[in-house]
Amino acid sequence: MDTRSAREQVAYRAAEAVPLAPGSLLWDITGDIRILFSLPAAMVLQVAHPAVGAGVDDHSVFRTDPWGRLERSLTSLQLWVYGGDRALEEGRRLRKLHQAISGTDAHGRPYHALTPAHYAWVHATAYPIFLRTARYLSHPLDERRLYDELLQLGDVLGITRHDMPKTPEEYWPYFDRMVRGELELTVVVAELLDPRRPIPPPPGAHALLRRIWPVLCPPLAHLHVFVTTGLLPPTVRDRLGLPWTACDERRLRHLCAAVRTLLPLLPERLRYLPLAREARRAARHAGRPRPAQS
User: What pTM was estimated for this model as a whole?
Assistant: First the structure.
């Protein structure tokens, strides 16, 4: 039996971790701007867990600095996938950052951000959301290959494989148990899915954008909530009591079909986030295989 402490095991896994490389599925999808559709749904799925929701409610700046938090989250995510050795550094930085995040959830139960089951759940939510978003916005993904790469990414983040389902076949019963037994409409979920939530204009926005923001923000907020709700798995919507009709589903499919058709027509500099563009360019210059076009 392995008698090492949890901290020692995490350090050991981090030492063994192999960063993702060009040609992987995550290299292709994580830097694509369609990730901006995936992340809000994944965030809702994460904070529907009462411990994770309480941690975000108590410690996050998503209310006071939403744009800054988004930028930092995107940068961190890009480093996980495209950073090479910097990915390992970012994984260690995140674990250190989460060491101080603890408190009591809405049911009076203590939580800590690095509790293995909680930390693993945050990572595990990427799997159903990436699969679902790809079906709507690009093309179906190889489920087994994606899951294997997410396990590899978990190594980078210091998530031991003991805390994750080992295969896609083991993942779905785990996911169903989590949805039925753990998830709930937390305070943070309710806020994230409230189109009336006040959002300031982006920092440094042009004067014209700031002027029209009060008119522009409400329809954008409604669209954001609509797409986020639609990309959640139906069992999650049911569990959280989120209404969704056949008409809503048709509207979502029409919107996603337009994105799926038009986005590949854009030049690469508009289709990929900055760190992804740089990494793809460097990989091409190094003569490595170019990631598949989606």
Answer: 0.89
